[in-house]
Amino acid sequence: MLTLILLLLVGTVLTYLSQFNLSPVTVNFGIYVFSDVPLFYVMIGSLAVGLVLSYLINLFHEISTSFLIRSKRNEIKKSRGEILELTKRVHQLELEKEKLKHEPIVEPEDLNAL
User: Using an 8 Å Cβ cutoff, are 26 and 34 in contact?
Assistant: First the structure.
């Protein structure tokens, strides 16, 4: 509904502008020359080119952001895997420590001792 209202407002503004900006102008594009083009068409063309360029810049930004997010997600997955492996290793070492703590200390006998 909001989109429809905005489109109606934009259409009204464009209609108002078109009524008062019909004077013919000459447009130069390098070697190309367009004469007797209504000023309103030049204004609308400029607006359209600006919108397309801003859309393309935004699209490029979104694509680069999505690649960045994907790489960060992969880093997080890798780090979580590392954390899991290290947690398992710590647990194994704690079990080994407890086992050694409760095991009686037996010193080997030296048969060549005096």
Answer: yes
